[in-house]
Design goal:
Length: 430
């Protein structure tokens, strides 16, 4: 081979060797490694965002304080139910524990439903909104059919078989309104400020449900459904103008209703308002229940007469195991015991709203707000009725009053709150 050609080949190879400098090769390898690492990180991030949201989720444990408070209220309710009901249960059926056994069975079913719901992703409730609404409307209409609905104390609110198993369709309607409003409002965001999308459809729905329930008549259930729905609308971003207008409208309607009742134009609720103002004017008839309730509350004093030692429950106080069970609590546990019961309710409600503030998304937050608003209103109204602060409305005390299906549904709703608590996002620095 000629010498010149060999030199050309060596020059070519030399140039190639220069291009394959070790430093450049290492830099190129590092660059590729960084690219691959970034790609893997981005892929993992996309996977996490699809499955868990922008921020990583917490470990998935239930909120322990809320769970313990729920269990505490359930146990306290069963104990007080037995104490309040054993005289009437023994008189009616010969079994002092009759009401306790039935309530205890539904409590176990409710606790099982609560724990089951707590382990289910609450977003699955979105697919049940229409079904719940249709079922609740059907049952509310069915209870008005002559011969189908069960009438007690002048009101037709129950379905089932009297003395065996009965339930109020209004309990299902309460849950349906919460789930539907939470699902719908969570999707609208800024549209809640618009009358067409944020006010009119929800007012029409609440008005329709209220009309069905007032036909029973069921005033307390109507107040709970309408009140819960309005609170969800406000939390969902309702314009301040509509809030002020709504409050003014409700106040005006209430005032007009009272004036019409006093004038004798409206008869429904007239006796209740009159007895609310002064039950002692007819203490042996229309005002009897309210008078006996006030006697029970006053008899308790500071420390109470002792658990199980109350006297008003011995066939003096009507509905002592149901709507007026808080009067028995006051008589047997006194002011201190009644205050402790109210404190536990307050802690449960506050903890629930704390979970709502920490919720993963708007849907979860609105679900919890709806459930806790319902519990808050029901607790306040029951205690207010028993103590004479508001006219009697026939409203039960959550976890305490006799009513198996109501207790089971309340515990199921607590399961919804626990389900939301399991998906609270972890702190950003965690």
């Amino acid at each position: 081979m000629p010498q010149t050609e060999k030199r050309k080949r060596r020059g070519l190879f030399a140039r190639k060797r220069v291009r394959r400098d070790p430093g450049q090769s290492q830099a190129r390898g590092q660059s590729q490694a960084r690219g691959q690492s970034q790609a893997r990180g981005q892929s993992q991030a996309r996977g996490q965002s699809r499955g868990q949201g922008v921020r990583p989720l917490a470990a998935g444990r239930m909120d322990l304080p809320f769970l313990l408070l729920t269990l505490l209220l359930t146990i306290m309710g069963l104990v007080m139910l037995f104490s309040a009901s054993f005289p009437s249960a023994n008189y009616e059926s010969g079994d002092p524990a009759y009401y306790l056994k039935r309530q205890g069975l539904f409590a176990l079913l409710g606790l099982a439903a609560m724990l089951a719901m707590a382990r289910i992703d609450y977003h699955r409730l979105r697919g049940m909104t229409k079904i719940l609404m249709y079922v609740s409307v059907f049952l509310l209409a069915l209870v008005l059919v002559p011969g189908v609905g069960i009438t007690q104390n002048g009101a037709t609110r129950w379905l089932g078989k009297a003395g065996v198993l009965t339930f109020q369709p209004s309990e299902i309607a309460k849950l349906a309104i919460i789930v539907y409003f939470a699902d719908s409002i969570s999707k609208k965001k800024n549209l809640m400020e618009n009358f067409k999308y944020g006010v009119r459809p929800y007012i029409l729905i609440l008005g329709f449900f209220a009309g069905l329930m007032l036909l029973e008549p069921h005033l307390s259930g109507t107040i709970l459904i309408v009140g819960t729905g309005i609170v969800l609308m406000i939390v969902g971003g309702l314009d301040k103008r509509w809030i002020i207008g709504g409050i003014s409208g409700v106040a005006a309607v209430g005032l007009i209703y009272v004036k019409l009742v006093e004038a004798g134009i409206i008869s429904y609720g007239a006796d209740r308002i009159r007895m609310w103002k002064d039950p002692w004017i007819d203490a042996l008839d229309e005002g009897y229940q309210m008078c006996q309730s006030l006697i029970a509350i006053g008899s308790g004093g500071l420390t109470g007469v002792g658990l199980g030692k109350g006297r008003q429950k011995f066939l003096y106080l009507p509905e002592e195991h149901n709507d007026f069970i808080f009067a028995v609590v006051c008589e047997e546990l006194g002011l201190i015991g009644a205050t402790l019961v109210m404190l536990v309710f307050a802690l449960l409600i506050l903890r629930g709203f704390w979970i709502a503030l920490q919720a993963r998304d708007r849907f979860g937050a609105l679900l919890v707000v709806g459930v806790m608003t319902q519990i808050s209103l029901q607790t306040f109204l029951n205690i207010a009725v028993v103590s004479g602060l508001v006219p009697a409305t026939g409203i039960s005390l959550p976890f305490f009053s006799y009513g198996g299906t109501a207790l089971a549904l309340q515990l199921f709703e607590m399961g919804i709150v626990l389900s939301v608590s399991r998906q609270i996002p972890a702190p950003r620095g965690g």
